[in-house]
């Protein structure tokens, strides 16, 4: 990332590997003159402030160092000691106002972070505005920062990235699979559960001094088999509840989207 790519809200410092760096102390980018509240001043190295005046910035400092490499830092409010922002590919929620990016799963659509009050002129027709509302459904999607359109560099060569399909409920599914395949008193867990369910339907689950047994000849179960079946059954119920909770949360999040914002999918209204 280069100095010209930083935007208000970013914390960064120049890389020492770049020749003639102006300073290696951490900086925070602001869009108003003066230091932001809570900026660390009592620790070394001291934090500095860079006042961002937009792409029309005519300061000699900006033009001299605009192409120097920088590294993003964790925000000073959570890491007063400069800490590199290391998260692999960032997520949409990591971006700040003015960032330009593509979603890794749809690299043909280009976005700039703004809000519904922002007016941006000069954007190419294939660029879109990304607001907190329009991006709500993709808030945790992976993104890649790209150069601002006025740099003359084109992001059109961005290659699609095949993201791994990570199941948020993998732990529960793995636990269920292990219990389904486990043998208890010579019977697989999956069969134990099937017999347990039939035993409940025929009311043939009987209490014993050591627990319960199934007395139905067609679905007989020992106490150990019933214990295992109930354990497997509880894991399946937990998975079903977790899936329903996630589905309800997703539906609720979508219900909160403002009517005048468009979800960030290809072919949405472009910025003019």
Can you describe this structure?
The chain contains 4 helices and 12 strands. With 272 residues, the protein is of the alpha+beta class. It folds into 3 domains: 3-73, no CATH class; 92-162, no CATH class; 170-254. The radius of gyration is 28 Å and the shape is elongated. 24% of the residues lie in helices and 17% in strands. The chain has helices spanning 60-65, 170-181, 189-201, 223-255, and strands at residues 11-14, 27-30, 48-51, 70-73, 100-103, 106-113, 127-130, 143-145, 183-184, 187-188, 205-208, 211-214.
Layout of strands and helices, then pairs:
Blueprint: E1 11-14, E2 27-30, E3 48-51, H1 60-65, E4 70-73, E5 100-103, E6 106-113, E7 127-130, E8 143-145, H2 170-181, E9 183-184, E10 187-188, H3 189-201, E11 205-208, E12 211-214, H4 223-255
Parallel strand pairs: 2-3, 6-7
Antiparallel strand pairs: 1-2, 1-4, 5-6, 5-8, 9-10, 11-12
Helix pairs in contact: 2-4, 3-4
> Structural class of the secondary structure composition?
alpha+beta
Q: For the CA atoms, what is the radius of gyration?
A: 28 Å
Poorly predicted residue ranges: 156-161, 256-260, 267-272
Q: What share of residues are in beta strands?
A: 15-25%
Query: Can you tell me the overall shape?
Result: elongated
Number of strands: 12
Helix-strand pattern: EEEHEEEEEHEEHEEH
Question: Biggest sheet: strands side by side, in what order?
Answer: 3-2-1-4
Largest sheet: 4 strands, mixed
List the total number of helices.
Answer: 4
Tally of individual domains: 3
Distance between the termini: 26 Å
* Mean pLDDT over the residues: 77
Helix content: 10-25%
């Amino acid at each position: 990332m280069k100095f010209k790519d930083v935007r208000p809200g970013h914390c960064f410092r120049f890389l020492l590997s770049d020749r003639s760096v102006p300073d290696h102390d951490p900086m925070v980018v602001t869009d108003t003159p003066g230091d932001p509240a809570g900026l660390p001043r009592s620790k070394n190295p001291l934090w500095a402030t860079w006042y961002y005046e937009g792409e029309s910035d005519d300061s000699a400092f900006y033009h001299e160092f605009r192409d120097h490499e920088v590294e993003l830092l964790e925000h000073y409010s959570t890491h007063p000691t400069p800490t590199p922002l290391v998260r692999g590919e960032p997520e949409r929620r990591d971006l700040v106002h003015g960032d330009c990016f593509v979603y890794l799963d749809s690299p043909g659509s280009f976005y700039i972070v703004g809000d519904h009050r922002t007016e941006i002129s000069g954007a190419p027709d294939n660029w879109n505005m990304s607001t907190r509302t329009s991006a709500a459904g993709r808030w945790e999607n992976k993104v890649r920062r790209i150069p601002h359109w006025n740099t003359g560099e084109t992001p059109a060569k961005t290659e699609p990235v095949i993201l791994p399909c990570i199941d948020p409920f993998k732990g529960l599914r793995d636990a269920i699979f292990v219990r389904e395949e486990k043998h208890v008193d010579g019977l697989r867990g999956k069969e134990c559960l099937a017999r347990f369910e039939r035993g409940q339907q025929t009311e043939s689950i009987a209490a014993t001094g050591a627990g319960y047994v199934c007395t139905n000849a067609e679905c007989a179960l020992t106490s150990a088999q019933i214990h295992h079946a109930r354990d497997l059954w509880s894991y399946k119920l937990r998975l079903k509840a977790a899936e329903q909770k996630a589905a309800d949360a997703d539906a609720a999040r979508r219900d909160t989207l403002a009517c005048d914002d468009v979800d960030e999918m290809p072919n949405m209204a472009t910025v003019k």
